[in-house]
Amino acid sequence: MSTSTLVQNAMSDNLAFSLMARLHVILRRQIGRVTDIEYMRVNPAYCRAMLDLSMGLPNDDLHEICLKLEDIYFGEDGLFVAPPPAGPLLARLSSMSTAQKLRPKAPSLEDDSIMQVPMPPPDHNAMVDQTYIGRLR
Q1: pTM higher than 0.70 for the full model?
Q2: In the chain, at which end, N or C, are there fewer CB atoms within 10 A of the end residue's CB?
């Protein structure tokens, strides 16, 4: 994605947020419906459900808001239609190499080293220290 596309998406997201705030107020006043604006910004199914609900109400302002939100989110270059931008390449490479390093090796059934690990004897004093109420003070 180019920088101009990212800027355009950010401006569209800001416009959508203000439109959803107006939609929230109108729905709250008309039918007592409370909407979650943040969830509406990230979940296409919830956004579609709120737009469908709003289009079914007899309010011209609400219909205009819904049409604008429909275009911003579900239009040809909508925010839900366009793929999200990928993170920086170096961050993706470092996270992949870190994940590979941290991935533990799964023990196999043929590996006898698991059975040969000696268990330390239980320490009675350590158990008493853990249960002593004065330790909590």
Answers
A1: no
A2: C
